[in-house]
Amino acid sequence: MNIVAIVGSLRKDSYNRKIAEFMKNRYKEKMDIEILNIGNLPLFSEDIEDDPPTVVKEFKNQIKSSEGILFVTPEYNHSIPGALKNALDWCSRVDRVMKDKPTFIVGASNGNVGTARCQAHLRQVLNSGGISAIDLPGNQILIANVQDHFDKEGNFIDERTIKYLDRVVDNYIKWAEKLKS
Ligand code: FNR
Known about the structure:
Helix content: 25-40%
Number of domains: 1
CATH architecture: 3-Layer(aba) Sandwich
Bound molecules: ligand FNR
């Protein structure tokens, strides 16, 4: 499967980015994950939505040609990081490139609720008429106290979470393949 991954954090040493990279490597036999850059997208404006800058066109084309979308995101102020919301707003208009795409959400934060509030908001946005992406209910990963899941060298090392991730990824692939047929 050809999957695009959108990371909600722009931070250089982002745990969420490291998890996306970990997944790209661990599941390479099952999915080809391409991690997209949302940090260079301009702020959305209706004034330029019909003929947006090249960087937006390229971003939307990558999503359009994908078979699914993986979100790996932290929670900011009990919600979705602004950079991620901006990317979603671009995708909600004109050619609506996320429509009917199977999505799945992984979220890691350093708080105790592991992005639960962000994920609830993200799902609501993905279900909006403009975006109309779909997800497999219950098939999600919430990683609380994310700093405790990495070693000093920055490797994702929590075996229990990794085993759970294996299951959720398999569920996602099975579901997304079924949707195609
Ligand atoms: C946070 N953080 C945070 N954590 C949380 O569990 N709930 C929250 O509402 C917030 N809010 C918040 C707002 C802003 C602006 C920042 C910068 C951070 C902490 C956050 O979980 C932590 O910085 C993560 O490490 C961010 O993820 P990355 O950048 O490591 O992927």
